[in-house]
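Subgroup meeting minutes
Present: P.N., E.W., G.H.
Scribe: E.W.

1. P.N. recapped why we're keeping a running log of single-chain structure predictions: easier to compare across weeks, and new members can see raw inputs and outputs side by side.
2. G.H. added today's entry (182 aa).
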Amino acid sequence: MKALISVDYTNDFVADDGHLTAGKPAQAIEQSIYNLTKQFIERGDMVFFTIDLHDLNDNFHPESKLFPPHNLRGTSGRELYGKLDSYYQKIKDLSNVLWLDKRHYSAFSGTDLDIRLRERGITNLTICGVLTDICVLHTAIDAYNLGYQITISKSAVASLSEEAKIFALNHFKSVLGAKVID
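Output recorded in log:
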């Protein structure tokens, strides 16, 4: 069984005025992420939207020392970007769609994602979203360590720089044994 793990494709990471935006590279993958999501939904596979959640003035969170405040609770920065948000509004009540808030880079850290995947007998994960070299990479590392088969669609991931994206794509393939497609 398969699942799509969609990581952080939100306004704060994608929109021009996002607080930690990858900008044009992230905007350029919008259609690919939309198509991939639609494909999984139409096949009846699971789709997990794993979305960064932070609280303003949380000085205890390690990211508060590294990045500006982003994906803050109750802000439009946490909403999915563009046509993915419109599509999500139509499918969010389907039984094969789940939204998981996450506090750390990995979608597995501090969430029940692994339990939900195992309950459903899912062993193959396709991971998409942003940022390729941070949250997508950390999610893939945890997935690898938990024994999942990993696929990364390179047209459905983006980073702050092309060099960072290339590093992560090579790491997926050569260190995690992931299948990197398109």
